[in-house]
Design brief:
By secondary structure, the protein is mainly α. It contains 13 helices and three strands.
């Protein structure tokens, strides 16, 4: 005879099986909806910013910033999103000034340039606030480097952009002067104007190489972030961009001048002049990598001495 035993159904302890993936998915969906809503609200200034990036050489870098920031968030996602949680206070502390900036931009009688700057500053501040709201203060801190590239979307005033380009323009002219002196080529200089045999040349602001400068600045930020722990080394690497660009631009102008005077004037109108900048950018990138290596070796030797 079979023993009849009552069938017991063990209740599952649902408290021990929290759907973490579901919670994260919900959080991510809410954040994406937040970003979409902000884009809709700020559509007019974003449209103006896109037009500025497409039609103005000085602001052409802006379009690269959001994809680069997203790429960095993805690369460092394990560190950035290691401990996520909602943070109403931290989010509000950023969202409130972000919205206030937008109100000020729309109600204050300022020029279009200043208004667009405040509106985009408002937007990126709101995005930072959304990140803090849905993912917490720790996520905001760990994601500060990718957020830097979001803030680089800001359309800086023309006067601010011109200052580093002025430095490179002066540096390029000095490099051209040095190379002409070393080559023994007879020339006359008046500021940025150089007179060679059969050639009148001006080191114009366009010769400052804004694209290569911006690309090398971005490269210096990335190299400094991933390879240096010292803020001083990172700062030195960023500052090294300006003499490097001055050197490569000056050498390029000198080479074109010599080729134009002694070979053919077509060199100043040909592909080497119009499209040859990529070669000198690559040269600048090699020099930047060399400077980074020197700074890293110096940092290691300093650590070794301190331990000894």
């Amino acid at each position: 005879m079979l023993n009849e035993q009552p069938l017991e159904i063990q209740p599952q302890d649902y408290t021990k099986h929290i759907d973490i993936a579901g919670l994260l998915a919900t959080r991510n969906i809410l954040f994406v909806l937040f970003i979409v809503a902000s884009v809709i609200i700020y559509w007019t200034p974003l449209k103006s910013l896109a037009g500025l990036s497409l039609h103005s050489e000085e602001y052409s870098y802006i379009g690269m910033m959001p994809p680069l920031a997203l790429f960095l968030f993805y690369v460092e996602r394990r560190k950035i999103f290691a401990n996520v949680r909602y943070s109403l206070v931290s989010g509000a502390l950023l969202l409130l000034p972000g919205f206030i900036l937008d109100v000020v931009a729309n109600l204050t009688p300022i020029g279009h340039e200043a208004q667009l700057f405040l509106q985009i500053l408002s937007l990126v501040t709101v995005w930072a606030g959304g990140l803090a709201l849905f993912y917490g203060t720790q996520t905001l801190q760990c994601g500060s480097f990718p957020l830097l590239f979001i803030f680089l979307m800001l359309p800086l005033p023309q006067s601010v952009i011109e200052k580093p380009l002025d430095v490179i323009q002066h540096g390029s002219a000095e490099v051209v002067n040095i190379f002409l002196d070393l080559s023994g080529v007879p020339f006359f200089r008046d500021g940025f104007n150089f007179s060679l045999t059969g050639l009148e040349m001006v080191v114009a602001p366009q010769c400052a190489g804004i694209h290569s400068t911006l690309a090398l600045l971005i490269a210096s930020l990335l190299i400094g972030h991933f390879y240096f722990k010292s803020a001083g080394a990172r700062a030195l690497l960023i500052l090294a961009v300006f003499p490097i660009v001055s050197l490569t631009n000056g050498f390029r102008i000198f080479g074109l001048s010599i080729l134009s005077v002694y070979v053919s004037m077509d060199f100043f109108k040909g592909d080497l002049h119009r499209n040859g900048g990529i070669m000198f950018f690559l040269l600048g990138l090699v020099l930047l990598a060399y400077v980074a290596r020197l700074l890293r070796d110096r940092g290691r030797s300093g650590q070794t001495k301190s331990k000894a």
